[in-house]
Specification:
The complex is a heterodimer of chains A (104) and B (365). Chain A is an all-alpha fold. Chain A has helices at residues 2-29, 34-37, 41-49, 55-78, 80-103. Chain A has one domain. In chain B, the strands form seven sheets. Chain B has a four-stranded antiparallel beta sheet with strand order 1-2-3-4, with no helix packed on it. Chain B has a four-stranded antiparallel beta sheet with strand order 5-6-7-8, with no helix packed on it. In chain B, strands 9-10-11-12 form a four-stranded antiparallel beta sheet, with no helix packed on it. In chain B, a hairpin with a 5-residue loop joins strand 23 (301-305) and strand 24 (311-315). The chains are: A mainly alpha (104), B mainly beta (365).
């Protein structure tokens, strides 16, 4: 049971990271037109601060992903039940993001 | 039966922040590498086929007609060098929908013609052509030829009877009806000129810093309007001809009464790009707005309130220098530049709503 929970956590945790990196990949792919298509106001602000470029947004995404993954891992390391809940919630949000990115 | 120890630590090492951060970093980098394998070949193909493209002029002679644009392209590989192209295209056209005109020409200047169906094209050998947009595949009509260098600026008078052209050293006037040269000025080093919409005269700015008005019929100087300590880089007359905007070499933007030369306002601004591509000014159709190049190394545009002289808005989106801009209406603007794109801006929202990317024809087509 413990092993199964650990595998589930790792799968969810990796899924969260993968979707975040995939989002960054799309930012890089569509960097020339992101100024007009970005919907996230924070993302748009970072693009504007970077003079229309996406590098600041990508850096923020990178740091944010590593920070979120670290926090999830720490929570799981100390309180596995809570860690699994956090990972599940994050994975749910990332699944919504992925579906939006692929279907919208 | 025993209760599940849900909160018992399972792996000790991930309780340490440094180890957890290192593990997260490693997985993030792993996925970046994985997606990089998918991303890099596409980018590498683009690099292998890299072309530097710069849109230097773009005209929309009427709202119902497609745009006419000039651009040049240099392939990163090969020895073909720089090629100039004149094209007709819709502003949201895909590369396949661009019509290339007059492939034998090397056009370097473009201006509106005497009516909405014609445009003027200045060639790098100094020849000036009239192009009929209703028959874009027909041979263009030759108006005249500057014997001493390519056309760098071109304009048609409001009554459609005169054309003024400029090369590096001289200014020429042509009669459109007879297709003959009217006059040539060799005594003034013109940096830019604007044709008055309300009379048969032109305002010239010289490299000595003078602003003079000349008669379009015989080329004689009518009067000296003003003298500046620095040479003007660009001038533009408002649609009614009453106001004259001048961009000076020291970064000052002046607004003058074009008849009395009285200064309406004078702005020293680091906002105005002083690079060669950023030397443009354009009034809106109502004359209430003015657009110039902006401060971000010439990649943005600044909108000015003509009455107050205050900057209203910055337009950001071009990824390289902007070469020019023109208002479509008071709420819409087109701009083009060295990133190879033409952008249509919604001025209320401050965003580009349409982007056209121009590409040269493939070899052998």
């Amino acid at each position: 049971m413990l092993k199964r929970r650990r595998v589930l956590f790792l799968l969810l945790w990796q899924f969260v990271i993968f979707v975040s990196v995939f989002d960054g990949y799309l930012v890089l792919l569509f960097r020339h037109e992101l100024y007009q298509t970005e919907l996230n106001p924070l993302g748009l602000l970072l693009i504007q601060l970077n003079g229309g470029q996406v590098w600041l947004l990508l850096a923020a995404k990178f740091v944010g992903t590593v920070a979120a993954a670290t926090v999830a891992l720490l929570v799981y390391g100390r309180r596995p039940g809570a860690g699994l809940t956090v990972a599940s919630a994050l994975a749910g949000l990332q699944l919504c993001l992925l579906l939006f990115l692929l279907l919208a | 039966m025993s209760a599940e120890p849900t909160n018992r630590p399972e792996v000790v090492w991930i309780s340490h922040p440094a180890a957890a951060a290192a593990a997260s970093l490693a997985v993030v980098i792993f996925f970046i590498g994985l997606l990089g394998i998918a991303f890099l070949p596409r980018e590498a193909r683009q690099l292998a086929n890299l072309q530097y493209i710069s849109v230097t002029h773009s005209l929309a002679t009427s709202k119902s007609q497609p745009a006419v644009s000039l651009f040049w392209a240099i392939a990163a590989t090969g020895t073909s060098g720089c090629r100039h192209h004149i094209v007709i295209h819709l502003l949201d056209a895909s590369p396949g929908e661009i019509m290339f005109l007059c492939p034998r020409l090397h056009p370097v200047a473009l201006a509106p013609g005497p009516d909405a169906d014609h445009v003027l094209v200045g060639n790098c050998d100094g020849t000036i052509y009239l192009l009929d947009l209703r028959h874009p595949t027909a041979e263009p009509i030759q108006i005249g030829r500057q014997p001493d260098g390519g056309v760098i600026e071109l304009a048609c008078s409001a009554d459609g009877r005169s054309i003024v052209s400029q090369n590096t050293y001289h200014l020429y006037a042509w009669d459109l009806a007879t297709r003959s040269q009217r006059w040539r000025r060799e005594d003034v080093a013109v940096s830019s000129f604007s044709l008055r919409p309300d009379s048969e005269s032109a305002i010239l700015s010289t490299r000595c810093g003078e602003l003079i008005e000349v008669d379009l019929v015989d080329g004689r100087t009518l009067r000296t309007l003003a003298r500046f300590s620095f040479p003007p880089l660009a001038t533009a007359l408002s649609p009614d001809g009453r106001l004259l905007a001048i961009l000076l070499d020291n970064g000052h933007l002046h607004l003058l009464d074009s008849h009395t030369a009285a200064v309406r306002w004078d702005k020293k601004s680091s906002r105005i790009c002083e690079s060669a591509t950023g030397r443009f000014l354009a009034f809106s159709p109502s004359g209430k707005l003015l657009v110039t190049s902006g401060q971000d190394r010439g990649r943005d545009l600044t909108l000015w309130n003509v009455v107050t002289g205050q900057p209203i808005k910055e337009l950001r989106g071009h990824i390289n220098n902007v070469c020019g801009a023109a208002f479509v209406t008071d709420r819409s603007l087109r701009s083009w530049g060295t990133d190879g794109t033409i952008r249509v801006w919604n001025l209320d929202a401050g965003i580009a709503t349409r982007v056209a990317s121009l590409m040269p024809p493939r070899e052998g087509t």
